[in-house]
Structures are given as structure tokens and as C-alpha cells.
């Protein structure tokens, strides 16, 4: 008897279902159908989010390229201004570009400062001095110095130091060491 009631219930449901569909104009959702449509909705949302992320990445790459171009242009302008300033300082300090004196101006974009590195040779009847100095081209603050008297056989150790951006003074023993330390300011 229970089995026949079950069959009657199924037959009744099958006969009533088309009428309910026509009345509601919507299919009856089974739990499995609801789960499938929900899954499909999430898949669509994820797909849309991925597309949005891809578009945002493209926009970021485009903005980074524009920024790099602007920075490059700006840095070139600052480098030219720095070179002019370095020449002016070199001239005001009484140096003249010649065989025994020279300078390099360098705009350091990381530190946003203009540096000048001078070098000079002074020959007297008793000595041959060579020195390099590293300065901020605007403030005149010294950041490093290398000096040696090549004719002083008693004291062949040079004066050699560079003040790092941290404020630490690094001492050196040769011109090569000085130039390596000066790269902190003067670039590669």
C-alpha cells in the first residue's frame, strides 16, 4: 500500500507540474538546478573580475610607462641644469679647465641633488699634489676628499674620505677606493 501511495504521489506531481509551470511562467527549481545556476553566476563574476584586473594591470603599465618617460625627460633637464651649475661653481672657485684641473657635474635623481667632483694637480719645485673633492654644487657642502703628495716619500698615505648619505665617514687608502665610494653620489 505504501508503494502505491508513492507512485500516485509521483504521478500526481508529474501531472500538476505542467500546470504550475504555465501559471508561474517559471520552471520549478530543483535544488540541483539552483546550485548549477548559482555556480554559473559565480563563474561569470570571477570571469568579469579577471577581466577588470587585466584592464587595471594594463592601465598601470601604461601609467608607469608615461611616468618613466616624464622622469627621463625631467632627469635630463635636471642633469643639464646641474652641469651648468657645476661649471659655474668650478669657475667661481677659481679653477680653470686645463691640463691639470677638471670637474664633473652629476645630478643624482635618487638623492635629488647636484654634485660636483673636481680634480686638480699642483706642481711645485718640491712636490706634486693631486686631489679630488666632492661637493654639493648648490650648498657647497663637502662630501669627500682625496689628496696625495706623490713626492712625499715619508708619508705616502693620502687624505681620503667620503661622507655617506647616512652621515658615516668612510676612510679610504687609494684613489680607486675614493672613486668607488664617490659613486654613491656620482652614479656609476
**Tally of alpha and pi helices:** 3
Q: Tell me the helix content.
A: 40-55%
Lateral strand order in the biggest sheet: 1-2-3-4-5-6
What structural class do you assign from the helix and strand content? alpha+beta
Query: Could you describe the largest sheet, including whether it forms a barrel?
Result: 6 strands, antiparallel
Strand segment tally: 6
Provide the low-confidence segments as ranges.
1-30
Q: Please compute the radius of gyration using only Cα atoms.
A: 39 Å
- How big a fraction of the residues is strand? 15-25%
Order of helices and strands: HHEEEEEEH
Q: CA-to-CA gap between the ends?
A: 96 Å
> What sort of overall outline do the alpha carbons produce when their principal axes are compared?
elongated
Q: Mean of the pLDDT scores?
A: 79
Describe the secondary structure blueprint for this structure.
Layout: H1 2-24, H2 31-92, E1 101-108, E2 113-123, E3 128-136, E4 142-149, E5 159-163, E6 169-171, H3 175-186
Antiparallel strand pairs: 1-2, 2-3, 3-4, 4-5, 5-6
Amino acid at each position: 500500500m505504501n508503494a502505491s501511495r508513492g507512485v500516485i504521489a509521483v504521478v500526481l506531481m508529474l501531472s500538476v507540474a505542467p500546470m504550475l509551470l504555465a501559471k508561474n511562467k517559471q520552471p520549478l527549481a530543483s535544488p540541483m538546478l539552483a546550485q548549477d545556476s548559482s555556480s554559473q553566476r559565480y563563474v561569470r563574476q570571477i570571469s568579469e573580475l579577471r577581466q577588470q584586473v587585466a584592464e587595471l594591470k594594463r592601465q598601470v603599465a601604461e601609467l608607469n610607462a608615461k611616468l618613466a618617460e616624464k622622469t627621463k625627460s625631467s632627469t635630463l633637464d635636471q642633469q643639464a641644469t646641474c652641469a651648468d651649475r657645476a661649471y659655474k661653481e668650478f669657475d667661481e672657485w677659481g679653477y680653470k679647465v686645463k691640463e691639470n684641473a677638471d670637474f664633473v657635474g652629476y645630478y643624482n635623481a635618487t638623492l635629488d641633488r647636484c654634485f660636483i667632483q673636481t680634480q686638480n694637480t699642483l706642481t711645485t719645485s718640491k712636490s706634486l699634489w693631486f686631489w679630488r673633492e666632492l661637493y654639493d654644487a648648490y650648498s657647497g657642502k663637502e662630501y669627500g676628499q682625496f689628496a696625495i703628495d706623490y713626492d712625499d716619500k715619508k708619508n705616502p698615505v693620502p687624505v681620503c674620505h667620503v661622507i655617506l648619505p647616512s652621515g658615516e665617514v668612510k676612510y679610504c687608502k687609494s684613489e680607486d677606493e675614493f672613486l668607488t665610494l664617490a659613486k654613491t653620489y656620482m652614479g656609476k
